[in-house]
Design brief:
Elements (H helix, E strand, L loop, with lengths): L7 E4 L3 E10 L5 E7 L5 E5 L6 E3 L3 H9 L14 H13 L3 H20 L6 H22 L6 H24 L1
Antiparallel strand pairs: 1-2, 1-5, 2-3, 3-4
Length: 176
């Protein structure tokens, strides 16, 4: 699939990028010129490169993802070996799926809450992957929903409250 200038795509672990243009090298190979939306950099990458690229999700897909969050059940990843924990987190990010990022973030948040409750220190590896997961997810949701990244958590909270209220009123209607 060839992306066109102006399109927004997810590019590897960089996150959302705008295709600025397509250039042809003297060798005949085509390169995308990408502008990262949430990092201060430009990227030149082969059109047929090895780095993962896909279109940004739609507003409808973003809302559907948020709506399904309450149904996601996650347990904190309690691996004692840092290498295993890192590999687990990297594998979740490497799928480039918003659903996997949501599960990753929710799992790490559960681990953070448990650490706070038990007055334990929250791990640096957990913190790093939580921030990376949030940056990737919130960046894509921000673009899909036409928000700033800072507005995304509030939007998610409001949307989840609306879903909860709608479900509660449906349950009340069924009981009557």
């Amino acid at each position: 699939m060839m992306y066109q200038p102006g399109e927004l795509i997810v590019y590897g672990r960089t996150g959302v990028c705008r295709v600025q243009g397509i250039e042809q090298q003297k060798s005949g190979q085509d390169f995308y010129v990408l502008e990262a939306m949430y990092q201060n950099c430009s990227i030149r990458t082969p059109v047929e490169g090895k780095v993962f690229m896909r279109p940004v999700i739609s507003k409808e897909e973003a809302d559907a993802l948020i709506d399904m969050m309450p149904s996601i059940e996650v347990a904190p990843q309690e691996s004692l070996a840092l290498r295993e924990l890192t590999e687990h987190y990297q594998a979740s990010i490497a799928t480039h799926k918003c659903e996997d990022l949501i599960e990753l973030i929710m799992s790490i948040y559960a681990k953070k809450r448990a650490a706070e409750r038990d007055k334990r220190r929250f791990g640096a590896v957990d913190e790093r992957f939580m921030k990376e997961g949030e940056a990737l997810l919130y960046g894509e949701l921000a673009v899909a929903l036409d928000l700033t990244m800072e507005e995304v958590p509030g939007y998610i909270s409001r949307r989840l409250q609306e879903v909860k209220a709608a479900n509660a009123s449906r349950e009340t209607a069924v009981e009557v």
